[in-house]
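Final report, results section. Input specification for complex C-07:
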Amino acid sequence: MWLEAKNISFRYGRNQPWIVRHLDFRVEQGACVGLSAPSGTGKSTLAMLLAGYLTPEEGEILLDKKPLPRKGFCPVQLIYQHPEQAVNPRWRMHRVLEESGLISEELLAALGIEQAWLERFPRELSGGELQRFCVARALMSNALFLICDEMSTMLDVITQAQIWNVVCGEAAKRNMGMVVITHNHHLANRLCSSVYDLKDCCSARP
Amino acid sequence: MRQIKQRHWQNQRRWMRQKHLNRRTRALVLTAVLLVLLLAVYGAGILIPQEAVATDFIHARQSPSWQHPFGTDNLGRDILMRTLKGMSVSVTVGIAASCVSAVIGILIGTAAAAGSRLLDGVINWLIDLMMGIPHTVFIILISFALGRGLRGLLAGIAATHWTSLARLIRGEVLQLRSQQYIAVSRRMGKSHTWIMVHHMLPHLAPQFVVGLILMFPHAILHEASISFLGYGLSPEQPAVGIILAESMTYLSSGMWWMAVFPGMALVLTVWLIDRLGENLRWVIDPYSAQE
Amino acid sequence: MEKKEYRRGDPNVPLLAVNGLSVSFQMYDNTFEQRALQVISELHLQVHAGEIVAIAGASGSGKSLLAAAILGILPDNATAAGELRYKGQLLVPKLQKQLSGTEIALVPQSVDFLDPLMRAGAQADGHRKPRPTKERRRLFQRLDLPKDTEKCYPYQLSGGMARRVLVSTALLADAQLIIADEPTPGMSLEQALAALKMFRQMADDGRAVVLITHDIDLAVSFADRIAVFYAGTIVEIANAQDFGEGPDALRHPYSKALWRALPQNGFEPIAGSQPYAGRLPKGCLFAPRCSRSTPQCAQKAPSMRALRGGEVRCFYAHGRPKE
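Structure output:
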């Protein structure tokens, strides 16, 4: 199964400049692909497009040769750089997890999430602890593809290693496809079978 | 660190903070005081018999005394009793009108934020229009159209006070909609309704309550001013506005108590409610959690 | 009376000395009780002219508050204890106000610190008269900012561009001490390197830079010394080359664990996570996760001590094992 972006173009509004132009990109299930590019070249926009948060103005995003579902559960899940923005500040953490479906105790233990944290509010947890929850939420949703947009940039390296070890283990076990967006070359080389520069993915540039 | 403003170690302020109640406790105390007061006023309106405010020409035009703490008016009616009864009417009108108005506000605000761009434009235009025309004029017109009296007054106040709350709610919903956790929820397969109920409403509820409470003093003041101008409640009803209107004739003959005491009662109530609203706003603001 | 001159150039007086700094916050405890949350505890640091000191630690662990404390811009609900000295002078609020922006410059972490109604160029110039237009243009060019950036309003800038504008603001201020709070996120590697090279140059000119970052790789390649920040305090101050040499050269078990968790050196994490302010352990802050901890560690917090040209906050750190 492939997750494909076919000749997609995107801009925020009619009179805005193109952020993504004529871009082709594909990932196979079970593969882990790295993406790197300078800031302001549309990495995050591409992540949002691939996960269906945004719709391309031209071209299409295909999952298994079918367009991404517009309603209901999306099998491509995105993990953001800033976990504190990705959880409802008024919810206790167990509710955040329950939103994705069944809670897997095994996964929580693997990610180092302590039981006591489940009763806390997001503001009572650190960024690293919150990101563990966001990863748990994405993994428990039975996604087929994971898009990780600078997922561990704001974390300390120990937490980074902890989280990636779990994510890669789960991905291998379930044969998930992954797109890793990072500016850290060491990290990309360690995680990904191949690393692309965003410029190489554009078939034509204006 | 939300401000770049230069700050000093303010030892004195810290000392004061320890001395005084913190804001949450203060809001709680205010709520309790206000609830008791409102209940007392409302209860008084019902419990005070008609005889207590009956005309009594023998004791007319008396200045404040132990028997009549607020004095008596030109017809010998006890002003304290009339004020209490009047406040009761005012509070009832205020609560009813601001509740209706708040519901209108939340509905219109949500519609503007969630609906099409055209609808948003129309609603914004309407809000601007409503805010542009002085409320008093508007209420008088509506009150006239519906026939004067309680019904017209209620409809008038309810129809004019929703604008600021609607704008607030619209802003909140727009801001909420762009939150990442809402987008995540969508991609987790949750429906619009589910998100509205579970993510948005709990966020809007406190805003709604504060908006309602802050609307309340406005409603009371407008009720009083419209009645004062003679376009609201009928003169038989002892509304504060009517008491004040009557007192105007006698102010020049030195009967200051006819205006001062009912006026003070009105101001005090409005001020208390306003304080409560401000304190509650602080409590629900998430940033105040770190004070 | 004669005013005491700054002892300018005296190498023994550090440009900035932080002695036993603690910062705590007043927080509501769900109920109506307020309690203090200790975010920075007993922090010691000395910064000398001519060096870059990196403070490395996880985001949200209180590093930014250190910057705020030095500049005297702590939020209202924060209380600071301890002693800050600039060139040997006690940093009192009045002096902080006087020095900030001229002697001490901040590169703030949040892009929100830019004035939304001011063009980027004017913003970088600050209040200096005459406006350093020429210098600024050269600086913008070296930071890889497009020509028309100076005419842009902050909302028109991308995150990385805004951050580079913030960096140039501090560089133009010509301060003796620059405190850069996470200056690089959002920049590409090349841009980050360009920005840090300028910091390096400033330091080589005899100024000092405090680089607050979560990116150890950057810290290692540009700083002279690295202060490892853990749970609100500095557990080790090491020379940057110690990180290049590996865990044997490092002193504190946490720094060793950091080294081993880097993607280029093994990617092996230790279990657990940093304790949150308000739930700090009683003794050594790292004890619950440390493989070498003893009952003594759980009872008493070790104080900072000198070891092998650096400083460490651990009872059991020792000299380098003999070959």
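Chain A has a mean pLDDT of 87. The longest strand of chain A covers residues 2-10. This concludes the modelling results for the funded period.
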